[in-house]
Amino acid sequence: MGIVARQGIKYSIISYLSFLLGTFSTIFIYPSNPEFLGKLRFIQPSAEIICPFVLFGLSYANIKYHQKLKTKNQHLDFLWVSIQFVLINFIFITFIYWLFAQIFPNIKVSDSWNMKQYIIPVALSLALTQLLSKYISNLKRITVPGIFENFFPKLGALTAFISCVYLGISQKKALYLFTFFFTLAMVGMFYYFIKLNKDKKSGSLSILRDKTLRSNMFNFCLFSVLGSIGNRLALQIDNLMIPELLDFKQNGIYSILTSIVGFLTVPLMGIFTISGPIIVEKLENNKLDELNEFYKKVSKFLFLFGTILLACILAGIDYLFIFMKNGKELADAKIIIYILGAATLFDLATGFNSNIISYSKYFRFNIYAMLFLAVFTIISNIIFITYFKLGIEGIALATAISLTLFNLIKLEFNYRKFGIHPFSKDNIYIFLTGIISVIVVYYLPDFSNNLINLFTKPGIILILFLLANSWFQFIPIKELLSTNYKNFLTGKK
């Protein structure tokens, strides 16, 4: 077994462990104090918004230009210069933020300012962790960096939450404890890099004297920054705006419900990693018919499993809330699951439309579209909260509209440029099966024991989908079981 395969298997295990930890925490731990959870959920997204400014695309530049730099034995020199730039840039950005607060005093009454002592250190830790993680990926190592990047933040949040809510330490100390986990991850990443690295610096960066390379590198970094900022704003602005416009408790409730919706994206684990090289190969060789067929197959696969999971969630969520602390408050806002669930399902149905654009010569379009989505999301969030007074339900609605519009734009772009789309008649049958299954389960009589209801209702959903699959053959189960899902999706034997 090659190193890539071994690392892929190990990374998948870590990803699923992180997912299970997050699932357990969401259902059994976090509902006991949504307000403190809202504060935890505010810190990391705030820091991740700052990260692209601090990194200035250097994490991706260390991947894209690694081979060119390595031919001159200057790859390690570029990494150390990148680290120095990040540190200096971090100090500069921190100073600019402080200066703005002096010029515009209203900043000092914001939640971001009041929690700056946690957000700013986390931003630096994340920036250096991401920079090293991307560099280490050049060495075909992704498992240990995955632990530091994905597992540590979840473990830190859980540790801080338990320490505060169940062990009685102050919120301030618990938030510093949460911050410490990011610092620990950064230190761990540095230690792993030093242990792994066998190269030595050349003491020169003469390759950067090439004006063309320097210009290309700057443009690449600039577009990487814009893309990262757009992505962060579009996907994480919710957890930033809710505390500012509402309160931390509402942010906690919203985070729990969105985490439940996040279960739909489980099938994405590994799919996009597998798809990337295939998309590149099809585009470079102009095999658009084959790309179209692969696009449809992956999209149907994602849509099917997303529909099954959403139907199971809708069938069992009311019974789950009964067993969750503060379940009544969560149940009162469960419309968020319907709104974001529908938008996420459509996102799954559109498959890897972003990847097709990103790997093509039109990659800049994704950046512009993402920035548009970010601006649209921010404006619509403000309108739904301040004007229509819809609360976190308005945030969910704004996010769903933005995400759906974003996917529609990309769908139209891919069809216009490449003549491809992800839909087939099977999507209609899958969607109808999902609706009928939920309706059937809704009207079935309940058992007197809610724990039985919690398991039997989703179980009936699964049975109905198995019956529908035997009739419509959405997925040939025997073929899927007889091979790995990479070969199944690509049609290889």
Number of domains: 2
Low-confidence stretches: 1-5
Largest sheet: none
Strand content: under 5%
**Number of helical regions:** 22
Helix content: over 70%
The gyration radius over C-alpha positions equals: 23 Å
Overall mean pLDDT score? Answer: 86
Span between termini: 18 Å
Structural class per helix/strand content?
mainly alpha
Q: How would you describe the shape? A: globular
- The counted number of beta strands is 0
Order of helices and strands: HHHHHHHHHHHHHHHHHHHHHH
Task: Provide structural commentary.
There is one protein chain. With 493 residues, the chain is mostly helical. It has two domains: 1-209, no CATH class; 218-493, no CATH class. It is built from 22 helices and no strands. α13 (288-323) runs antiparallel to α15 (335-349). The radius of gyration is 23 Å and the shape is globular.
Write a brief caption for the model:
The protein is mainly α and 493 residues long. The protein has helices at 3-29, 34-55, 58-64, 66-71, 75-103, 111-114, 116-137, 143-165, 171-196, 211-245, 248-261, 271-284, 288-323, 327-332, 335-349, 353-358, 363-387, 391-418, 425-443, 450-472, 477-481, 485-490.
Q: How are the secondary structure elements laid out?
A:
Blueprint: H1 3-29, H2 34-55, H3 58-64, H4 66-71, H5 75-103, H6 111-114, H7 116-137, H8 143-165, H9 171-196, H10 211-245, H11 248-261, H12 271-284, H13 288-323, H14 327-332, H15 335-349, H16 353-358, H17 363-387, H18 391-418, H19 425-443, H20 450-472, H21 477-481, H22 485-490
Helix pairs in contact: 1-8, 2-7, 2-10, 2-11, 3-7, 5-7, 7-8, 7-9, 8-9, 10-11, 10-17, 10-18, 11-15, 12-13, 13-15, 13-19, 13-20, 15-18, 17-18, 19-20
